[in-house]
Design goal:
The protein is an all-alpha fold and about 140 residues long. It is built from seven helices and no strands. The radius of gyration is 20 Å and the shape is elongated. It starts with a helix and ends with a helix.
């Protein structure tokens, strides 16, 4: 049961947010359900990103901290509490709006860097494939 609340999105959806959005839009016919899950994964990613910092302050609680995190994920996950939507509306929406331009520039910069790396790797991959094919003869 708990693995449903703390599992990561499929590997193909981790690299690009638009890919994640497309996957969840296709899988869910209900747009409210899609909004719930997209909001959950956004809030979840913030919690996971800041967990090492938060853990410094609460690590003295020991295993109780783990149960508190599980409780937080249940609160965020459960459709009756709509915790993820509340956290997003109260805290993350304004923060993301404020830095939207910087986030978009960063994402486009990462995309262009990946494109350059792939373009540079293509000739090397082709050469390696030719060498592998020739050594098998």
């Amino acid at each position: 049961f708990f693995f449903l609340m703390i599992r990561r999105p499929p590997r193909s959806t981790q690299s690009r947010s638009s890919a994640a959005s497309d996957v969840y839009k296709r899988q869910s016919r209900n747009s409210e359900d899609s909004r719930h899950w997209l909001t959950y994964w956004l809030v979840y990613s913030f919690v996971i990103a800041f967990d090492p910092v938060i853990a410094i302050f609460f690590s003295w609680l020991g295993f109780v901290y783990t149960f508190l995190k599980i409780g937080l994920f249940i609160y965020l996950f459960h459709p009756k509490t709509r915790g993820a939507a509340l956290v997003y509306d109260k805290f993350l929406r304004d923060l993301l709006k404020k830095y939207e331009e910087h986030i978009d520039k960063g994402i486009s910069g990462i995309g262009s860097s990946i494109g350059k790396t792939v373009d540079a790797a293509k000739p090397l991959a082709a050469k390696a494939a030719i060498n592998a094919a020739m050594s098998n003869k």
